[in-house]
Amino acid sequence: MKDMAQKRLDEFYSPSFLHFKETKAETLPLMDQIRKEKNLPPIAPENLSSSYFVSATYDGKEGKVLIKLYEPASAKIYFWYDNTGHKPYCFTNLSPYELEKIDRLVNHPGLSHFEIVEKFDPLLEKPIKVTKVVAKDPLAIGGRPKGCIRDIIPDDFPKISDVPVSPQNIKVWEAKIKYYQSYIYDMGLYPGMIYEVKDGKLVLKRLENSERMIASLKSVFRDASPEELEYIEMWARLLEYPAPKFRYVAMDIEVCTPVATRMPDPREAAYPVVCVSFYGSDGLKRVLLLKREGVNKGEGKLPDDVEVHYFDSEENLLRAVFEVLWDYPFIITFNGDEFDLRYLTHRAENHGFKRNEIPIEPGKRVCLLKYGVHIDLYKFFFNRSIQVYAFGNRYRDVTLDEVGRTLLGIEKMPLDKGIGELTYMELAQYCFRDAEITYKLASFEDELALKLILVLSRISAMPMEDVSRQGVSRWIRNFMHREHRRRGYLIPNAEDILALKGKTATRAIIKGKKYKGAMVVEPVPGVHFNVAVMDFPSLYPSIIKIWNLGYQSILCQHEECRQNIIPDTPHWVCRKKRALESLLIGALRDLRVAWYKPKSKDKTLPAELRSWYNIIQGALKVILNASYGVFGAESFDLYCPPVAEATAAIGRHTITRIIEKAGELGIQVLYGDTDSVFLKNPTPAQIRALEEWTERELNMNIDVDKVYRYAVFSSRKKNYLGVMDDGTVDVKGLTGKKRHIPLFIKKAFEKMKEALSKVKSPADFENAKREIVQIIRDWYTRLKRREWGNIQELAFNVILGEEIGHYTKTTPQHVKAARILQSTGVELKAGDLISFVKVIHEPHVKPVMLAAKNEIDVDKYVDYLRSTFEQVLDALGLDFDEVIGLTKLERFM
DNA sequence: GCGGACTGCTTACCT
DNA sequence: ACAGGTAAGCAGTCCGCG
């Protein structure tokens, strides 16, 4: 079996490629040596073997785009500079003749020349002649506060025009695209992919055996149209390529401040860097310590394989740090953009280091590296889409301790004194642990984080640095932009899309929202055995594909298409031409559902390959989950509310039709939400009939996602519990699951889950009910007798969503507690977790740290216990107050 | 002056 | 800076009540 798996792996990828055995030694020692002494990174030689495109930027000194190539065999970064003479530009609807009249433009030192070009206007659906305004450097187009070409054109022309012109009629297009992105699109480059340098040119390396892959793809997607297949192939060629072995080092620094609680300002860098730790993928484990008077070595030691270096001067320590930053192709930090790298930069400047001695390029909000690629994992793990869809919402606040604890099971070292009071060994251990956690966040699960970034970089056509720092709407925007350029489409301005196609027509249920969203079916309360949950895999992306949704196709110009109405809306959608979104998102959906998801589970494939496919399908999931929402987000450059509205409307229509059909087939629908239906005890034949009907009538697939041995519904929507065949209890939306409720109550809820997990048949319920009654009585008595383990167990943990002064309309309880905490000198900011308990006296809340056992308002906790359990009890025919032994009369009182 | 009906705010969840 | 829908608890307001 194993041999067979290996064989298939070999067929997919030539082994020489996968392991880089064939790579020959590079012949650039002399030049390389000189550059290194001058702290200049190596230039790619005329010929360079397989290397990954990991970063791109504009090099102002050279006046060229710079691409960083990572060559895995030598584990080095090589620089490749543009040698094609490509220039930055934007478009305008003014003619060169008109532009010549604008003095400030013609005299602009950054202007190169004008060209008349023909583009396709996707909003008006016709070719259009525009003037390409070509510049000598990207900052001339935009980016400087004033006097940029993109501002001068609409500002100045109305003043000098012979006929009256309104500034709104003067258009400038594509002036806000970063120059290196523009370059990537125009040159048809694929960040994250493998290139060779041949005679000075960048050449994309083709996947070996790709014909075989494509043939397999064609057979899996035999129903796709040729146009669709083209896109499926395009994405697959990008995604199939394996990832390199990354060489990287994680870093963490400690600064000694006089006030222990305050984070030092990295822009001032007023205090010494006293410790820096490194943890590398090549086994490097190094701690650098600054010698200071009055500090002892102290007890404790680091693992044997950690090198410890002491430095007499901070300058020398910084030099030793910088040597590592010049050396490694990937530097990993946790908040290095805002702190570590920024601090090091300014600290070195304060010590009189020259610019070219410092390997860091500090920007407004990021810190990049002159040599390698800096990945700030804080930014990456902070990304909501990554947090929710890639890591299943396992960590809630984005701190090294929380993320490390929940994903790796490693905690930061606890500190009970300031950095300045630690012994060398304590300091080294503390700092090294942080570097270790940071490293492991990058390395765990087969370098999942780095590989996700690489895959997302390929999909979005963005450098790894940008993709790891920006949100999903930027990723989607960029692959849309690439496709516009590839087709010669003018990239429309957001205000033009909105003016032409911006209106929504439905009324949202939630006040303040722009349009109506998904449908939720009223649940049938009670206990139901054998419940099949059927759902549409990627419903919204499927709708975007099947219904041809996109900003071009919605409310299109053709008279003939006006009959093609979206249900429940007055909108129509184009029948004549596929929208780009429909093709791009549709192909990504198809690949995830029919290719990568199955392959990630295919046990006949080698584990290595399966893991790679699993990462790809995870990356696709993140993108697909956001692919509908972005159209309803004002911040998205192709914002088009009717597209989002139409998607949701078709979703409601789809699920409604399924429910009708289930009824016709005699299946009872117990519940449904957005894209799912819960069916009571359906026969296999009924399920098949529903699947076939959906395929035939709706041109979509629906399948059985899971089967519950039994499910318990309360009368509330988004609130239920299902027990799987293996006894796993799926809890959705119930209070007992919410993360802010006290541990004390959560423990009772967990015990109830255990009792429910054992129920196999309706008869078993009697036992389970008895157990549950006992649990409730138990917890009730413990509360009344004030018998809890630790007052922490009673704490509510609520996140402060806003800065504390921002709560003006009301003062919620957690804010009351936060204000009390603040008055004791604790600094609090948005995003902090507030732990408080309920107490008898005004204002009825107290930070848990300040509360005493006897002031706890026990009855409040009984109320919470009641409401938590009632969500389940009413379905079981139990009554909380009866359970705890209150008579009807007592309850009335 | 107090309590119930109501609305609005906030958080945490579901898809 | 992806979206809307739902639950729960509490804060605050209005109004009736001799």
Give a brief outline of the structure.
The chain is of the alpha+beta class and 893 residues long. Helix 14 (384-390) packs across helix 22 (607-626) and helix 20 (539-546) packs across helix 23.
Polypeptide structure, described:
- Helix content is 41%, strand content 18%.
- It is built from 30 helices and 27 strands.
- The longest helix is centred in the middle third of the chain and has 37 residues.
- The strands form 6 sheets. A 7-stranded antiparallel β-sheet has the order 18-20-21-19-22-23-24, sandwiched between helices. Strands 13-12-11-10-14-17 form a 6-stranded mixed β-sheet. The chain has a 5-stranded antiparallel β-sheet with strand order 3-2-1-8-9.
- It has 893 residues and is of the alpha+beta class.
Q: Which helices and strands occur, and which strands form pairs?
A:
Layout: H1 2-12, H2 15-19, H3 29-37, E1 48-59, E2 64-71, E3 76-81, E4 89-92, H4 96-100, H5 103-106, E5 111-121, E6 126-135, H6 138-141, H7 149-160, E7 172-173, H8 179-186, E8 194-198, E9 201-204, H9 210-220, H10 226-240, E10 248-255, E11 273-280, E12 285-290, E13 307-311, H11 314-327, E14 330-333, H12 336-350, E15 360-362, E16 367-369, E17 373-376, H13 377-382, H14 384-390, H15 400-408, H16 424-460, H17 464-469, H18 472-487, H19 494-501, E18 520-521, E19 526-535, H20 539-546, H21 580-601, H22 607-626, H23 641-664, E20 668-673, E21 676-680, H24 684-698, E22 703-713, E23 720-724, E24 729-732, H25 743-757, H26 765-784, E25 796-799, H27 813-823, E26 833-838, E27 845-847, H28 858-876, H29 880-883, H30 888-892
Parallel strand pairs: 10-14, 12-13, 14-17
Antiparallel strand pairs: 1-2, 1-8, 2-3, 4-6, 4-7, 5-6, 8-9, 10-11, 11-12, 15-16, 18-20, 19-21, 19-22, 20-21, 22-23, 23-24, 25-26, 26-27
Helix pairs in contact: 8-18, 9-10, 10-21, 14-22, 15-16, 16-18, 16-22, 20-21, 20-23, 21-22, 23-24, 25-26, 26-28
The structure holds a DNA duplex (15 and 18 nucleotides).
